[in-house]
């Protein structure tokens, strides 16, 4: 199904969400950056600072032209850099794929979808506002709910636990595979492959 592909035929913008700087590098909230770093390794390039406010890498993935972008703003302001990068590279909303952490999924679970709400995720809220609509693709990486009464906002700014870190590289790799499948084969095929039964 051609309409199932992000930005059918055109260039695709892959935006990974996180907070900039070493202090946040290992946080659950930064899993989008980790996945984009894995994809950059597969493409074989290095991110460069771009005037749109993101670190950007152009290349090919799954036989298509892609632009990888990691916003240099904080998570709550991700929309400006994502929309600015999309405008610069002439990618419309249907060609934008956002990789982000998701509290409502068990750790390491993946869900891919087109559109939907922001589910309390400030990065998504900012992107929806800046892009002027919700109809962009999301690749959701489960980080699970916080234990006990911990505030979700504090939880996502903590590093992955020792136990989680054992599986982290594998889960990041699998998420990068899911992004690649979405770009190359479309949403339905990628969902069928990566959604747990």
UniProtKB/TrEMBL annotation:
<dbReference type="GO" id="GO:0005737">
    <property type="term" value="C:cytoplasm"/>
</dbReference>
<feature type="binding site">
    <location>
        <position position="122"/>
    </location>
    <ligand>
        <name>tRNA</name>
    </ligand>
</feature>
<feature type="binding site">
    <location>
        <position position="76"/>
    </location>
    <ligand>
        <name>tRNA</name>
    </ligand>
</feature>
<feature type="binding site">
    <location>
        <position position="24"/>
    </location>
    <ligand>
        <name>tRNA</name>
    </ligand>
</feature>
<comment type="similarity">
    <text>Belongs to the PTH family.</text>
</comment>
<keyword id="KW-0378">Hydrolase</keyword>
<dbReference type="Pfam" id="PF01195">
    <property type="entry name" value="Pept_tRNA_hydro"/>
</dbReference>
<keyword id="KW-0820">tRNA-binding</keyword>
<feature type="active site" description="Proton acceptor">
    <location>
        <position position="29"/>
    </location>
</feature>
<keyword id="KW-0694">RNA-binding</keyword>
<feature type="binding site">
    <location>
        <position position="74"/>
    </location>
    <ligand>
        <name>tRNA</name>
    </ligand>
</feature>
<dbReference type="GO" id="GO:0004045">
    <property type="term" value="F:peptidyl-tRNA hydrolase activity"/>
</dbReference>
<dbReference type="InterPro" id="IPR001328">
    <property type="entry name" value="Pept_tRNA_hydro"/>
</dbReference>
<protein>
    <recommendedName>
        <fullName>Peptidyl-tRNA hydrolase</fullName>
        <ecNumber>3.1.1.29</ecNumber>
    </recommendedName>
</protein>
<keyword id="KW-0963">Cytoplasm</keyword>
<comment type="function">
    <text>Catalyzes the release of premature peptidyl moieties from peptidyl-tRNA molecules trapped in stalled 50S ribosomal subunits, and thus maintains levels of free tRNAs and 50S ribosomes.</text>
</comment>
<feature type="site" description="Stabilizes the basic form of H active site to accept a proton">
    <location>
        <position position="101"/>
    </location>
</feature>
<feature type="site" description="Discriminates between blocked and unblocked aminoacyl-tRNA">
    <location>
        <position position="19"/>
    </location>
</feature>
<dbReference type="GO" id="GO:0006515">
    <property type="term" value="P:protein quality control for misfolded or incompletely synthesized proteins"/>
</dbReference>
<comment type="subunit">
    <text>Monomer.</text>
</comment>
<dbReference type="GO" id="GO:0000049">
    <property type="term" value="F:tRNA binding"/>
</dbReference>
<dbReference type="InterPro" id="IPR036416">
    <property type="entry name" value="Pept_tRNA_hydro_sf"/>
</dbReference>
<dbReference type="InterPro" id="IPR018171">
    <property type="entry name" value="Pept_tRNA_hydro_CS"/>
</dbReference>
<comment type="function">
    <text>Hydrolyzes ribosome-free peptidyl-tRNAs (with 1 or more amino acids incorporated), which drop off the ribosome during protein synthesis, or as a result of ribosome stalling.</text>
</comment>
<dbReference type="GO" id="GO:0072344">
    <property type="term" value="P:rescue of stalled ribosome"/>
</dbReference>
């Amino acid at each position: 199904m051609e309409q199932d592909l992000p930005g059918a035929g055109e260039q695709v913008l892959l935006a990974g969400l996180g907070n900039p700087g070493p202090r946040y590098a290992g946080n659950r909230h930064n899993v989008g950056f980790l996945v984009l770093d894995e994809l950059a390794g597969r493409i074989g390039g290095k991110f460069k600072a771009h005037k749109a406010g993101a670190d950007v890498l152009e290349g090919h993935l799954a036989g298509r032209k892609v632009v990888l972008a990691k916003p240099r703003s904080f998570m709550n302001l991700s929309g400006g850099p994502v929309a600015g990068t999309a405008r610069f590279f002439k990618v419309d909303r249907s060609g934008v794929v956002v990789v982000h952490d998701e509290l409502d999924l068990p750790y390491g679970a993946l869900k891919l979808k087109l559109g939907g709400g922001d589910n309390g995720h400030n990065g998504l809220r900012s992107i929806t506002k800046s892009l002027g609509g919700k109809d962009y693709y999301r690749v959701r990486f489960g980080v699970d709910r916080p234990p006990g009464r911990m505030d979700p906002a504090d939880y996502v700014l903590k590093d992955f636990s020792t136990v989680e870190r054992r599986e982290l590289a594998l889960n990041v790799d699998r998420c990068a595979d899911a992004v690649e499948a979405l770009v190359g084969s479309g949403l339905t095929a990628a969902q069928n492959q990566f959604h747990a039964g």
